Amino acid sequence: MTHDVLVIGGGAAGLNAALVLARARRRVAVVDAGEPRNAPAGHLHGFLSRDGMSPADLLAAGRDEVTRYGGELINDRVDRLDHGFTAYLAGGGTLTARAVLVATGLRDELPDIPGVRQGWGHTVLHCPYCHGWEVRDQPIGVLGGDNRPFTLHQASLVRQWSGDVVFFPHRIELTGEERDRLTARGVRIVDGEVAAVTGTGVQLAGGDTVPRAAVFVGPRFVPRDGLLTGLGCAVGDDGWVSTGPGGATSVDGVWAAGNVVSSPAQLVQAAGAGSAAAIAINHHLLESDILIAR
């Protein structure tokens, strides 16, 4: 059976799109490998009516809603997608659809410093809008990394949640202007290479440890966009796949939503993008239905 829509990725964007499409009585299948980006986090925040819910519970509720309207969920991974919209699954099967939504998200490339990966989502954080309230008024560190503009902005931003913020440039050589901005913001700067992030603070290569309750880092965001680029979807100057209104890519019949095309998108924004894409896809299929019927 050919589905109307194949949704690849079952996070907030993919599931919300599938929900809207299933309620529009479209035959929709969601393929997801069960490896959500926010799995390490204990709770999600900033999502109206879902604030404080665990990411796992949100996804479970979303899956239940999609299947309630007849949507199909497939626990697998799409290895390859051809221009006829046949998806080749890692498990060996294939799926064919009239349109595709790719919502495969991104991966966070973290600084290669001992303790960062181990504390990720708990004492090592990256989004103050997601976790700032939980560590408010506590000693906070911000670690400089490869994503220089992000971490410098982050150091100033995190100061909004605490009066005790220390920026560790690590291997970043700060300009005089950058130091002045941070100092004016009330952020203390501790120079020197960082050797490790522990459960109690930031350890410098010289042996000293600066006590911190939480440390914010700026990952390098790497989109999981191989399926999109494999189809020839146009890429912008920023290196990310370009999308138009509703998440349409340059390839007819292919849409993208969520972090796979937007690194700043938070959970609620990804869900909204999924909804917008679903409506655009349904309108696309509607026009096709009319042409076929004439």
Task: Write a structural description.
It catalyses: [thioredoxin]-dithiol + NADP(+) = [thioredoxin]-disulfide + NADPH + H(+). InterPro entries: FAD/NAD-bd_sf (IPR036188), FAD/NAD-binding_dom (IPR023753), Ferredoxin-NADP_redctase_2 (IPR050097). It comes from Amycolatopsis suaedae. Keywords: Flavoprotein, Oxidoreductase. This is NAD(P)/FAD-dependent oxidoreductase. With 294 residues, the chain is an alpha/beta fold. The chain folds into two domains: 2-108 and 220-293, FAD/NAD(P)-binding domain, CATH 3.50.50; 111-217, 3-Layer(bba) Sandwich (FAD/NAD(P)-binding domain). It contains eight helices and 17 strands. It has helices at residues 12-23, 55-68, 116-119, 128-131, 148-158, 176-185, 226-230, 267-293, and strands spanning 2-8, 28-32, 72-75, 78-81, 86-89, 94-102, 106-109, 124-125, 140-143, 165-168, 188-189, 194-197, 201-204, 209-211, 214-217, 220-223, 254-256. The strands form four sheets. Strands 1, 2, 3, 4, 5, 6 and 17 form a seven-stranded mixed β-sheet that branches. A five-stranded parallel β-sheet has the order 8-15-9-10-11. A hairpin with a 3-residue loop joins strand 12 and strand 13 (201-204). Helix 1 packs parallel to helix 2 (55-68). The radius of gyration is 21 Å and the shape is elongated. The mean pLDDT is 96.
Order of helices and strands: EHEHEEEEEHEHEHEHEEEEEEHEH
- Label the structural class: alpha/beta
The 3D shape can be described as elongated
Q: How many domains is the backbone divided into?
A: 2
Query: What is the level 1 CATH name of the largest domain?
Result: Alpha Beta
State the helicity in percent bands. Answer: 25-40%
The N- and C-terminal alpha carbons lie at a distance of 23 Å
Number of helices in the DSSP assignment: 8
- CATH-derived architecture of the largest domain: 3-Layer(bba) Sandwich
Any idea of the CATH topology of the largest domain? FAD/NAD(P)-binding domain
Strand content: 15-25%
